[in-house]
Amino acid sequence: MNEEYDVIVLGTGLTECILSGIMSVNGKKVLHMDQNPYYGGESASITPLEDLYKRFKIPGSPPESMGRGRDWNVDLIPKFLMANGLMGLFEKRRFRKFLVYVANFDEKDPRTFEGIDPMKTTMREVYKKFDLGQDVIDFTGHALALYRTDDYLDQPCCETINRIKLYSESLARYGKSPYLYPLYGLGELPQGFARLSAIYGGTYMLNKPIEEIIVQNGKVIGVKSEGEIARCKQLICDPSYVKDRVEKVGQVIRVICILSHPIKNTNDANSCQIIIPQNQVNRKSDIYVCMISSAHNVAAQGKYIAIVSTTVETKEPEKEIRPALELLEPIEQKFISISDLLVPKDLGTESQIFISRTYDATTHFETTCDDIKNIYKRMTGSEFDFEEMKRKKNDIYGED
Questions:
Q1: Which long-range contacts does 151-157 make (Cβ < 8 Å, 24+ apart)?
Q2: What compartments host this protein (predicted)?
Q3: Which of 1, 382, 386, 398 lies in disulfide reach of 228, CB 3.0 to 4.6 Å?
Q4: Count of other CB atoms within 10 angstroms of residue 238
Q5: For 362-390, how does the pLDDT look when each residue is reduced to its tens digit (9 = 90+)?
Q6: pLDDT tens for residues 155-192?
Q7: Domains of the chain: residue spans and CATH
Q8: Computed over its alpha carbons, how large is the radius of gyration of the chain?
Q9: How many whole angstroms separate alpha carbon 200 and alpha carbon 26?
Q10: Are 337 and 253 in contact (CB under 8 A)?
Q11: How many whole angstroms separate alpha carbon 31 and alpha carbon 376?
Q12: Which segment of 191-195, 309-313, 332-336 scores lowest on mean pLDDT?
């Protein structure tokens, strides 16, 4: 281990594994370590079901009615969710007119603007132009454009229109849903990027205790583990490795629920995402519900996993998610967790220590992707180019 690397990565959460893969593909010499014996970190998939009971200190063992423990792969923080049963609003005539406008919109072609200035007209004004009601506005801004607050309403409309356009194009590509969800749970994603990193020469070490991050003259120079020092030019890590360099900006409550039925009024969908806009429940933050099932190889046959999450706003977080839990009744078993939202205190450009954010309450990958792109830009000074990444990958795997 007494070697020098371009980049050392600590932690095997989604963010860290994706960045590790990207850096390896870009020709960097990468060492990736985790103090845990498993991939995934905070976003791990837990199997068998007995381990989930132990993790949440639930007494006893899962009942026989829940099937074999090894049939379960429960994501602690689900992302990339599929959605079904949300398309009823598309039947509204005015909303359809709005969607046609979005589909034809091209920010480089003024002929598609129809009197709207994408860099000056606010999204609130666009909604008014199409005479959309509050329920449709809530749905559009929070379920399609994936905003977490209503601040976007008074911003120039260009970004929002492009977000909705992305949703529509994704929906057209995949049929019933614009989302993807990996079979056997989200834990497959970090391992996939770990394999990508390894193909390009990256080195992985699990169950490796981290004794010290060595900083000299304000800049990281290496990591000490089991008496050995690996030197590096840059360090990527999750907040658990550098508690003195992060600050708490809030909390998230998550409730994992095991069900024996699909969520009501979703046409018996085997997966769905529900976003309850904050102003419909007198809150500042949306409440998220996602459900997956045995169709994704994450639960026993006939069973469903629903996860409710939101940003904590009061001293009684369980009461805050009650509107969502009522949608899921009856619930066989609940697993409740409250975790801190941690963010880096600085950008890392001086220390060359680049720290990821903890995962927020959203059940989609939008904010995590933003964090990945942001860290990449701070590390390299340039924007992440997906097409270049795909070209380099194809040099190894061949064309898709």
A1: 152/123, 153/122, 153/123, 153/124, 153/127, 154/122, 154/123, 154/124, 155/122, 155/123, 156/118, 156/119, 156/120, 156/121, 156/122, 156/123, 157/116, 157/118, 157/121, 157/122, 157/123, 157/125, 157/126
A2: Cytoplasm; Golgi apparatus, trans-Golgi network; Membrane
A3: 1
A4: 24
A5: 876 778 888 999 999 999 999 987 777 66
A6: 999 999 998 888 777 665 555 554 455 556 566 677 77
A7: 4-45+186-247+344-392 (3.50.50.60), 55-79+249-341 (3.30.519.10), 91-177 (1.10.405.10)
A8: 22
A9: 9
A10: yes
A11: 17
A12: 191-195
In the DSSP assignment, the letter for residue 82 is -
Positive/negative CA dihedral, 352, 359, 206, 393 = negative
pLDDT over threshold 50, residue 147: yes
DSSP letters, 280-319, are GTT-SS-EEEEEEEGGGTSS-TT-EEEEEEEE--SS-HHH
Q: What is the pLDDT of residue 188?
A: 66
| Six-digit token string for 53 | 């009971």
Q: Determine the Cα–Cα distance for residues 140 and 165; give it in Å rounded to an integer.
A: 11
Give the pLDDT mean for 236-240.
96
Please give the residue that has the higher pLDDT: either 327 or 194.
327
CA distances from 274 to 133, 157, 362 (A): 19, 24, 11
Please give the pLDDT value at position 190: 73
What pLDDT digit, counting tens, does each position of 295-321 carry? 888 899 999 999 999 999 999 999 999
Nearest CA to 185 among 38, 327, 66, 86? 38
Largest CA distance in the chain: 68
Alpha carbons 291 and 263: distance in angstroms, whole number: 8
Cβ atoms 69, 48 nearer than 8 A? yes
Amino acid code (one letter) for 35: Q
- Confidence tier at 396 by pLDDT (50, 70, 90): low
pLDDT of amino acid 294: 87
| Cα gap 201→235, rounded to integer Å | 17
Token pair recorded at residue 240? 């658990």
Residue type, 3: E
| Mean pLDDT, range 67-77, rounded to an integer | 89
